[in-house]
Amino acid sequence: MNAKLILLSLLWIVSTRVYSVPLNIEADTAVLDQRKGTAEYRGHVRIEQGKLKIQAMIVRVLAENNQVQDIWLEGTPDDPFQFVDDSAVPPMRGSATKAHYRVKEQTMQLSGQARLEQGGQLLQGPTLDYDRKLGRLRAGHNPTNNPQTPSDRVKFIIKDGRIQGSP
Known about the structure:
By secondary structure, the protein is mostly beta strands. The protein contains 1 helix and 12 strands, in the order H-E-E-E-E-E-E-E-E-E-E-E-E.
C-alpha cells in the first residue's frame, strides 16, 4: 500500500508552519495515532525536506502541539538507512543502522556502522552526531563497549591533504 494519501492526513496533523520547507514521507505502510501524535512507516520509506533526502526500512515520527519534533530511522547491517544532504557544500552522504533526527534543531545522531562522506572525505565510527545548522560533526564510540575493537574507533580520511567544509 502506498502511504501518500495517509501522508496528507499526517501533514494536516503535524503542521509545518514553523518550518520553511515541508517534510514529505512515502512508505509501503503507515500507522498513524492522532491522539498520541505518532506515526510509524515501514518498508522502503523515503523522506524529503528541501535538499535533505533519507531512505530507511522503518521510520517513527513524534509530533507535539501539531508539529513534528523527532524522527527515528532504522535499517539493518545489511541494508542501513541512507541520507543525502545537498544543502551542504559540498553535498554530504551518510548511512547507519539507526538514527534520531530532531527536526526543529536539525540535528541527527547516527549509530551502528555510521558513515559520512563529503567532498571525497570519509568519516566513520560507531556513533556520529551531525548538526546541519552549525555544520558541526562529532564522532565517537559508546564507552560501555569494552574491550574496544577496531570497529569502535573513529576513522577519518582526508582527500588531497585538504579539509573541505565539514567533516
